Amino acid sequence: MNLTLPPLNALRAFEAAGRLGSFKEAAAQLHVTSGAVSQQVRLLEEWLGAPLFERHNRRVTLTAAARAYLAKIGPLFEQLALATANFGVPTTVSRTLSVNASATFTLRWLVPRLDTFRSEYPDINVRIETSNEPVESLKDTYDVIIRGGPDTFYGYSMQPFLLEERLPVCSPALLQRLPLHEPDDLRAHTLLHTTSLPRVWTDWLAKAQVDGLTPAATLTFDHFYLTLQAAIDGMGIAMGPTSLVADDLAAGRLVTPFTSPRLPSRSYCTYVPDASSANEVVVLFRAWLEREGEPWISGG
């Protein structure tokens, strides 16, 4: 079968502009000028005999036909990039796994469970680095990146494995000194905050239908794991992610004075570069994370 293909450069410019919704951003990603992207898109429009974009002042939007076209050709570019990255690469599987995750998640959830993965796969060497940098801002390449989500990043596959909710948590000793019978009783307590989560208490109090509450004091930390440690040490009450404090609740280091309302939070997801998605150690690690996170996914 003799198939006629449109110009590859024109297709690439269209794919980038359609995905990003901007000729300027597409030009930056492709390392060309905005004019070059516009010219290539017009070339493809002439080749197809139909417009692909509705042009506005600073943004462009795809036509309905172009959206359907992009949905079909986008994965082809991903497959092409993966095939190119794997060209000439030996088929032997690396037994080293590099993981990047946030410090709080690593300390509170991953490390306490990691020994089970090492027991199942003792031949896999795991290297973990902690960071709160967005996926697209990481300078180094990792086999698996763990962040909140679900989000979509070009060139990465995403897989949720751990659902999350938030509830007030505190030490049992603090609750004995200052009992909490209803959310309004929080006025007598110190509320613990984290700078990266400025609205979490406000949102929970609104959901609990408590308006204008002024606590006895507030204490703010720059890292969330410090906020949780302060709660364990009886310094105040924190908004605890249910999965990350599960071990502390089970051990009695923390208690939940209220079982509701539960404040929804972002799930934990794995983000894996397309070039690593078929790597055996990545597949095994992702499957293990899903098994460990299954009680939360199923509502346990």
What would your notes on this structure say?
The chain is α/β, with parallel strands linked by helices and 300 residues long. The protein folds into three domains: 8-85, Orthogonal Bundle (Arc Repressor Mutant, subunit A); 96-161 and 267-297, D-Maltodextrin-Binding Protein, domain 2, CATH 3.40.190; 165-264, D-Maltodextrin-Binding Protein, domain 2. The chain is 41% helix and 20% strand. It has ten helices and twelve strands. The protein has helices at residues 8-20, 23-30, 34-48, 64-85, 103-120, 172-177, 200-207, 224-232, 246-251, 280-297; strands at 53-55, 60-62, 96-101, 125-130, 144-149, 156-162, 165-169, 190-194, 217-221, 238-241, 263-264, 267-273. Strands 4-3-5-12-6 form a five-stranded mixed sheet, with helices on one face. A three-stranded antiparallel sheet has the order 10-7-11. Strands 1-2 form a two-stranded antiparallel ribbon. Helix 1 packs across helix 4 and helix 2 (23-30) crosses helix 3. The chain is globular, with a radius of gyration of 25 Å.
